Every structure is written in structure tokens, then in C-alpha cells.
Amino acid sequence: MSKKSIYIYIISDSAGETASKLAQASVAQYEELDITFIRKTFVSETAELMEALEGALADEAIIIHTMISKEFIQVANAFCAEHDIFCMDLLSPLVNEISKRSTIEPNRIAGAVHSLNQDYFNRISAMEFAVKYDDGKDPKGFLEADIVLLGVSRTSKTPLSLFLANKNLKVANLPLMPQAHIPSQLWDVDPKKIVGLTNNPDILNKIRQERMRAYGLNPDTAYSNIDCINEELKFAADLYKKIGCVVINVADLSIEETASIIIDELDLQDFSFFG
Amino acid sequence: MSKKSIYIYIISDSAGETASKLAQASVAQYEELDITFIRKTFVSETAELMEALEGALADEAIIIHTMISKEFIQVANAFCAEHDIFCMDLLSPLVNEISKRSTIEPNRIAGAVHSLNQDYFNRISAMEFAVKYDDGKDPKGFLEADIVLLGVSRTSKTPLSLFLANKNLKVANLPLMPQAHIPSQLWDVDPKKIVGLTNNPDILNKIRQERMRAYGLNPDTAYSNIDCINEELKFAADLYKKIGCVVINVADLSIEETASIIIDELDLQDFSFFG
Fold first, then answer.
1. Domain-embedded: residue A1
2. Count of domains observed in chain B
3. Which residues constitute the domain of residue B33?
4. DSSP helix, strand, coil percent of chain B (3-state; round to 5)
5. CA of B78, closest CA in chain A: separation in Å?
6. Cα distance between residue B76 and residue A48, in whole Å
7. CA atoms of A95 and A82, how far apart (whole Å)
């Protein structure tokens, strides 16, 4: 079992986010794997690229590259062919196919996906919006939001709001408690923009006990009591029914999965592409 | 110029995030392109996959797929070969190469990258941390944070904190103003965990005038006055020098680029891979 670590070099003339995503998704398919990631990003000179390639050769690495410079792509692909290095050129096949179909040449601007255009600033605004209108802080946000998330404590409202903000969507969220006041603005929001989040009582019970323990408190408080949780969930379910909104049980869903379902259910999918 | 839209089908047995990233990065290389994205994600049955493939065929689409089910991959690749559809199978080459080198078989669990494991819950905690300790709300966060961001208004502190949180890093941020009090906790933080953000005065001037206009106010207030901005930037620069922290000028950088620089400078890069 004293195998050598597998080296994966991520080489990019931009931030290398696409290659990182691919590497993460692939590595997640293995329980125990000794992987060393080396990131060589924002490569801007051939010498820098050569240094990265020589490093990969020395480490007998797998190379995943996302480069848009024609020269860099040629240098990298030729080097890998010559030295028989396993190399994935992620951008070229798709860019070449799009150019063939559209008869338009790519700009070949490194990091174009991060260009500081209007979409980019809208995304920053969406993130600031999510922080400003998190946790029901200001119900005025409901009327400006693309999505209003409702949910009892521990249904992932905050991370979900932030994840959706990164896709250029303005999200406000409101925690639900039976004794809490429902702001009147909620009734002015189009129910098609509202998502009711729920969870399984036993999961909430477990999560909340953990949370109390983490705070150094007695785990068996009203917050984690199963009858109280059931009462909260019933209150939430009744409210969702009254509003007529989409309801999602997040019990077995990750943030990414829940976000994807929300985008589909609320017919918002286009937003997620032009961030 | 009445060309047909180019259809890109993103097909995945998970959320399709890797394929989306690739599509975005490629499309960003073209100024004007009529692209229609169709997402068929969380595919769980062969019939569903066939429907997606038939749709792609009818739309003469480009297919990008990220699937881990062996059966789905075979069905998709065979269908595309038969009908001469341009198809990128993103996961297979890398997964096959990793298996070859490690002699370990992949789990082939769809969405494994989103599994609700400890890393996942840590990432959620990191997001909640970023919201809790945004905008200097509670200086106690400085001591628990992996990164403390300092910066005058409009240096991207909030979106940067959230972006880094999504990479499993706990970030607190503090806005700097000459008249503001610097919390004493800041001096107890390891300077190697602190990042001073700055920007060009003319850019801040422009952004802040815009912001005032957006609020329906006179754009020429002290907030946007160039002398005041220079004074703020000098105050920040002096503080950064006193602390001895990394300084980053975000003027020409996107959030992704700034985050990547921070991860490299603070030697945190491993965190970004196991989210």
C-alpha cells in the first residue's frame, strides 16, 4: 500500500475553475486516494507554462488544462504528446466546435468568464442582497427578491441563499417559528417566487441536538424537542399551503441539488448561465 | 445573420456543475452568440436519458455530459456516435485514468462530490460564519477565522468572503474608515491570516458616485470625494504596513481572481479542493 501519490496538475491562463471542478467531481468517486493537486493558474508567459509542464513531467502527473491562448495550447499539447503525458485540454474541443458552427472566432481573452461586466456587478449585488436580507432581517427585501426562501431553523436557508446569489439571483429568506410574526410583505410576493423548505423531524432533532452540544448546552431543549419540531413543521406546512408555494424537503439534498431544483421549479434556469 | 441558435445540452446524473462551468468559460470567449442552454440534470433512469438525447438530436445540439453511471455513459456515447452528435464525455477520461493508476475502481455514485459528509457541513458552517462576521459585525470572529479581510468601502469584501466560504474557508471582514475604531482583537490575529484590500482612487470615486446615484442621492458627497477617498486609502495602507499583511489591489481583478491570489499567498490552496 505504499503507492506513490497521483499528481494532478491544473494549468490555466485564468483561474482554473473548470478544471478544478472536474478534478473534484472525479476524485469524489474514490474513497481513499492519495492525490496531490498542483495549481498553476493565471499563467501569462510561455516560460511559466514550460516550468509547469516540466514539473508535471517530473511528477508523472495527469494534466488538466483550460487555456485560451492558441500558443499556450499548442505548447502544452505538443509537450504532452512528446512526453506521453496524460493531458486533458478542456476548452479547445468546445471552443473549436462553437467557432465551426457560428463561423465566429473566439476572442481568446484569458479569464473572459470573469470579465468585470454588468453581469459580474449584478452578481456582486446579488451576494450583498443575500447578506442584507438574510434571516428575515428586513422584510422589504421580499418585494425586490427573485426568490424568497421560507423555512424552520436548520433547513439550509443561508447557504442556499448565498449559492443562488452566486448564480445572479436575488434571494431573501425568512426563518419560521410558530410564535413568530409573519411580515405582511410576504403576502404581496408572487407565490411563484416563494419556496418553502422543510426537513424530516428526526434529522432536525439530531442536527439541533448537535448544535446545542456545540454551544456547550444541554442537547434536550425545546429547540431540539421532537414535539416542538413537529409543531414547527406543521406551522410551516400550513403556511406553505396557504401561500401555495413550491415545497422542497432538503433532508437528502445538498445545497447544489436544492438550488438546481429551485432553478428548475421556478423556471429561472437561464440566470445561472450568464453570471 | 438569421442563423439558428446553437443548442448546448448539459446532461448529468448529478447537478451538472462541471459541464456548466465549461460551457460558461467557452461561451464567454464570444461577444455575440445565439446559444440556447438545455439542462437535463439528476437523470436517474435510462428513459429520461434517452429523452434528453432525442431532444439533443432534434435540436442538432452539442452535448456535454458528466455522468458516472457506466450504463448511462455507454448509452449516451453510443447514441452520439450513431447519430454523429458532437459530444464531450467529461468525467470518463479522468476517472478511467485515475482508476488505471490507482488500481481502485470508482464508486460510481452520482453526485458523490455533493455527499453530505463532514466537509460538506464544514462548508455550510463556513458560509454561516461569513454572514455572521461580515462587515465587522462581531470582532470575536477575527480569532476564529482562517482569513481576515480588511478594506475600505467597495473593495469586494462581502462577495469575496462568501466566495472563499464556498471553498471551506472561514472568513471575517472589517470595513476601514479613517474615523472608525479598529477592534483590539485585530492585533491578536496572526498577520499571515490577514489580507488588506485596496483599489485605485479613480475607480472607487466612480463606483461610489454610481452607488449614490442608485440611492437617488447627490453623487458628489464625502463618500465619493476623491480627497476623502485618498485619505481613506492612505489610512488603510498605513494600517496594512503596521500589521505587515499581504496587500491586494482589486482594481482589475474579479472575485475569482482575487480569491485565487489569496489562497496562493496565504498558502491555503488545499482547502479549495475538498469542499
1. no
2. 2
3. 6-114
4. 50, 15, 35
5. 19
6. 38
7. 24
Q: Find the CB nearest B88 among A3, A93, A163.
A: A93
Q: What is the ipTM of this complex?
A: 0.76
* Dist. CA A239–CA A234, nearest whole Å: 8
- B chain contacts of residue A27, beta-carbon cutoff 8 Å: 98, 273
- Per the domain annotation, does A64 fall within a domain? yes
CATH of the domain at B242: 3.40.50
Quick one: average pLDDT of B130-145? 93
Q: Closest partner residue to A88 among B28, B94, B134, by Cβ?
A: B94
Query: What band does B269 get if pLDDT is binned at 50, 70 and 90?
Result: low
Q: Sort out which chain A residues have CB atoms less than 8 A from B109's CB and list them.
A: 29
Domain boundary among B51, B85, B114: B114
Say whether both A79 and A184 belong to one domain. Answer: no
Which residue of B93, B106, B156 is in closest CB contact with A88? B93
Q: Are residues B123 and B235 in the same domain?
A: yes
Q: Name residues whose C-beta falls within 8 Å of residue A204's C-beta, 6 or more positions apart in sequence.
A: A152, A153, A154, A229, A233
- Claim to verify: residue A89 and residue A177 sit in the same structural domain: no
Of B39, B12, B2, nearest to B24 by C-alpha is: B39
Domain identity same for B40 and B131: no
Question: In this structure, are B127 and B95 located in the same domain?
Answer: no
| Cα nearest neighbour of A110 on chain B | B29
Using pLDDT thresholds of 50, 70 and 90, give the confidence band for residue B121: confident
**B155 annotated binding-site participant:** yes
Contact B162 A166 (CB under 8 A): yes
pLDDT beyond 80 at B190: yes
Contact B66 A16 (CB under 8 A): no
Where residue B171 falls among pLDDT bands split at 50, 70, 90? very high
**pLDDT > 50? residue B271:** no
Q: Which of A19, A87, A36, A26 is nearest to B98 (CA)?
A: A26
Of A96, A114, A132, the residue at which a domain comes to its end is A114
Distance of residue B258 Cα from the nearest chain A Cα, in angstroms: 9
Q: Is A148 in the same domain as A257?
A: yes
Residue from A89, A162, A271 whose CB has the most chain B CBs within 10 Å, to mutate: A162
